[in-house]
Amino acid sequence: MTLTSILVLIGFLVLVFLVASGGAVFRPGPWYERIDKPDWTPPKWVFPTVWTPLYLLIAISGWLAWREAGFSFGLFTAYVVQLVLNYAWSALFFGLGRADYAFADVVALWIAIAATIASFAAVSALAAWLLVPYLVWVTIASVLNLSVWRRNQAMLAQV
């Protein structure tokens, strides 16, 4: 591996873990403990346990796509969009307590991840496949977000 390749990998890791910081900046407030959640809501410890390896896969996926094709607007547009939407979800859901806006965001996030997978598949099958667990988890998160929103519309309007 060249020095440039190592530096670009470090850059992807830093970028993705800056996005991950949204989960640390926007923490669940007291309102989150009071809302009605579905029985199948994962325990709190599951979220960092799942997200940590997913963020690592997101960074490696971007790096692999870069190694195969370099940086191009077309290749990385959806990748950057999904990173922005990923960060925004924490701000909308936990920061603002807006499960409705967060649901719209997570649907857009799902689409952006799927578009990234399609884009990366054209240059690296591995880069694309590394994003599939992320898409699966965001699918679960979407359904959970929708359920929380529907169960708590009146309360969340007051947060």
Model description:
- This protein has a single domain, classed as TspO/MBR protein (Ferritin, Up-down Bundle), CATH 1.20.1260.100.
- The mean pLDDT is 94.
- It has 159 residues and is an all-alpha fold.
- It is built from 9 helices and no strands.
- It has helices spanning 3-20, 22-25, 30-34, 46-69, 73-95, 99-121, 125-129, 132-151, 153-156.
- The protein is elongated, with a radius of gyration of 17 Å.
- Helices cover 79% and strands 0% of the residues.
Looking at the chains present, what oligomeric state does this protein adopt? single chain
The CATH H-level superfamily is TspO/MBR protein
SS content category: mainly alpha
CATH fold call: Ferritin
The CATH architecture name reads Up-down Bundle
What is the CA-CA span between the terminal residues? 50 Å
For the record, the CATH class is Mainly Alpha
What is the H/E string?
HHHHHHHHH
What's the average pLDDT?
Answer: 94
- How much helical structure, as a percent, in the residues? over 70%
Radius of gyration: 17 Å
Biggest pleated sheet: none
**How many helices in DSSP terms?**
9
Number of structural domains: 1
Number of strands: 0
Strand content: under 5%
The unreliable regions are none
Family: Belongs to the TspO/BZRP family.
Keywords: Membrane, Transmembrane, Transmembrane helix
Membrane topology: Multi-pass membrane protein
GO cellular component, one term: membrane
Give the tags.
159 residues; mainly alpha; Ferritin; 9 helices; transmembrane; TspO/MBR-related_sf; transmembrane helix; membrane; TspO_MBR
